[in-house]
Amino acid sequence: MRASLRWPLVVTLTNLEVWFQRPKDIVRKLVSGDLDLGIVGLDTFREYGQGNDDLIIVHDALAFGDCRLSLAIPNYGIFESINSIKELAQMPQWTAEKPLRVATGFTYMGPKFLKENGLQHVTFSTADGALEAAPAMGIADAIVDLVSSGTTLKENNLKEIEGGVLLESQAVMVASKKSLIQRKGLLDITHEILERFEAHLRALDQFTVVANMRGTSAEEVAVRILSQPSLSGLQGPTISPVFRKVDGVVKSDFYAIVICVRKKLLYKSVQQLRAIGGSGVLVSPLTYIFDEETPRWCELLSKLGLFFATSACDEASS
Ligand SMILES: Nc1ncnc2c1ncn2[C@@H]1O[C@H](COP(=O)(O)OP(=O)(O)OP(=O)(O)O)[C@@H](O)[C@H]1O
Ligand SMILES: O=P(O)(O)OC[C@H]1O[C@H](OP(=O)(O)OP(=O)(O)O)[C@H](O)[C@@H]1O
Ligand SMILES: [Mg+2]
To answer: What are the residue boundaries of the Histidine biosynthesis HisG C-terminal domain, all occurrences included (predicted)?
Structure first.
C-alpha cells in the first residue's frame, strides 16, 4: 500500500509504504494512481484535485495545518477605503485595458472565485512563494494566498476583506476511490488509519487523572465524585479499592479513582477532587481513545457505494 504524507506522522502499520512528497505532488500522484492515500492541506487538495470525482476525502479535519485561502489587498493608496470583495469589484479602475492584477499560486481556485464574485477585468500572475511582496513591488494589485496568523500580510501592509475567504483549510486524509475499491487490503488499512486518527484526535483533548480518596465503599466514593460536574469521565469514574496494612491488619479505607478529563478543565477538576477529599492526584497524557465505530468510516463506505456496512454503521445511519 502506498500512502503519502506531507507531515511526519508515526505510523506503525504493516503493509504500508510511506513517502514524503511535496503537497501538490501527493494530489497529482493520487490522480495518476501512483499513490493510494495522502495527507495534504484541503487547499492543495481542492486546487490540484480540481473536482476530480475519483478523489475522496477520508478524514476532513486532522487538526493541524490550520489556515485559510484568502484574497488580500494593500491597506494603502486606492485600496485604503476598500473593505469588501463587493467594493473591490465596483472600483472604476478595473477595465479591459487595465485589469486588476492578482498574484497567486492558486491558479485554479483564484480565477474561479473572482469570476464568481463579479470581477470581470482580472489578470493573474503566479509565483512559488513570497507572493505578499508582489503589490509592494508593483507587479500585482492583490494576492490570493494562504493566511494563518496574518503576520505575513501585516508585515507587507496587506489586508483581508469581507467576503474574500476562498476556503478554510486544515490537513485532510484523501484517497483514490478506484484504489480503495480495487486494491486488495487498502480498505482495511484505511479503516485502521482512520480509527487511529480519530482515536488520537479524541485523546489529544483529554488527560487521565488518577487520585486516591478515603471512603467507606466504592459506591459512597462514586456518589461524591459524580456530585462534581467536571469529574464524570467518559462513561463514569473507575473506582478500585486500595489495600493498606494498618497495625498488621489489611484495610481498604482508600479508593483509587481513574477518570478522563478535558484538558481545559484540568485545574477545575483537581480543585473539585480536593473539595471531596481527593489526594495524590496523578495526571498523564492519553495516546488513543477508541470509541464506537467512527461515522467517517460509515460515510466512506457509503460514498464508495459499498453497502456491506457493519452493524455499527447501521446504527449510525438509523
Ligand atoms: N502559515 C501556515 N500555517 C498553517 N498551515 C499552513 C501555512 N502555510 C501553509 N499551510 C498548509 O501547509 C500546506 C503546505 O504549505 P506549502 O504549500 O507552503 O508547503 P511547502 O512545503 O512550502 O510546499 P512547496 O514547496 O510546494 O511550496 C498548505 O497546503 C497549507 O494547507
Ligand atoms: O499568516 P501567516 O501565519 O503569516 O502565514 C502565511 C504564510 O505562510 C505560507 O507561507 P510559507 O511559510 O509556507 O512560505 P512559502 O509561501 O514560501 O511557501 C503562506 O504562503 C503565507 O505566506
Ligand atoms: Mg510554501
So the answer is: 205-287
Are 26 and 6 spatial neighbours (Cβ–Cβ below 8 Å)? yes
Q: What is the pLDDT of residue 16?
A: 86
Is the shortest distance between the CB of 103 and ligand 2 below 6 Å?
A: no
C-alpha of 219 from chain center: 40
Domains and CATH numbers, the chain: 2-65+170-203 (3.40.190.10), 67-168 (3.40.190.10), 205-285 (3.30.70.120)
State pLDDT tens for residues 142-188.
999 999 999 999 999 999 999 999 999 999 999 999 999 999 899 99
128 CA closest ligand 1 atom index = 27
Count CB-CB contacts under 10 A for residue 273.
25
* Ligand 2 and 129: CB distance under 6 A: yes
Ligand 1 atom 23 nearest Cα: 22
Residue 51, C-beta contacts closer than 8 angstroms, at least 6 positions apart: none
Say yes or no to pLDDT of 316 above 80. no
**Cβ atoms 95, 214 nearer than 8 A:** no
Question: Is the ipTM here above 0.90?
Answer: yes
User: 3-state class of 115 per DSSP?
Assistant: helix
Which residue among 5, 146, 170 has the greatest number of ligand 1 atoms within 8 angstroms of its CB, and so is best to mutate? 146
Residue 3's pLDDT is 61
Residue 317, ligand 1, Cβ within 6 A: no
Nearest CA to 65 among 198, 141, 173? 173
Burial 44-77 (b: 16+ CB within 10 A, else e): bbbbbbeeeeebbbbbeebeebebbbbbbbbbee
Q: How far apart are CA 242 and CA 250, in angstroms?
A: 10
What region does 277 belong to: left with phi over 0, alpha with psi -120 to 50, or beta?
left
